[in-house]
Amino acid sequence: MILKKFPDKESLASAAADRAAVIIRNSIAGQGKARIIAATGASQFEFLDALTRIPEINWGRVEMFHLDEYVGLPETHPASFCKYLHERLIDKVGIGQYHLLSGTADPQAVIEDIGKKLQQAPIDAAFVGVGENGHLAFNDPPADFETEEPYIVVTLDEQCRRQQLNEGWFSTLDDVPRQAISMSIRQILGANEILCIVPDARKAQAVKNCFGGPVSPMAPASALQEHGNATVYLDAASSSMLASDIRSN
Fold it and tell me: Is the pTM of this model over 0.85?
């Protein structure tokens, strides 16, 4: 795992998007398609905006998988990650094939269907973030580091649910669903390359816990430390609690 620090979220997003574009283009050139995992949430706004503006990516040759989704939330809800991905990625660039996690269908049926498709071939790149509680996807602490299942149903902790409320996705805490479908930690780590995009001061404590300390289920994103080809993109604010010797860009 490599940590890279940038002055602000815009330069962070631009650098991550440039690397993402290289992975996608190289995968298409080498095998005719690129298989990617896309994250959502407010922390990914600038990254996805930068990525979708990069020219000469054959998005028709991209197959995209969904990282996580709330159980019981319809796609019409403003907080739906299916809605988010359609608006900020799929419909903007015309992705050729995508597999979204329905929040209203039976969770086990969704897991079985999308999980089988996910495991049909290697994933070229996973684009992920880190939650304020250190979660990776919706794997809140203590995260399950052992399950081999591609997707699992998880119960969201209060800090995670409050983050969703504070970001403006819901009107009240009671409106935030208590369960979600999440890609498992081991499945995420199975990607050939991982780009972890983590801007903003509100993520500084989580960044310190996950990347400035030991690997632990209590700091779920710390699992990225064990991946041989993962890069964490930080800005000055999110990296403010880390040691000052991390690589600046």
Answer: yes
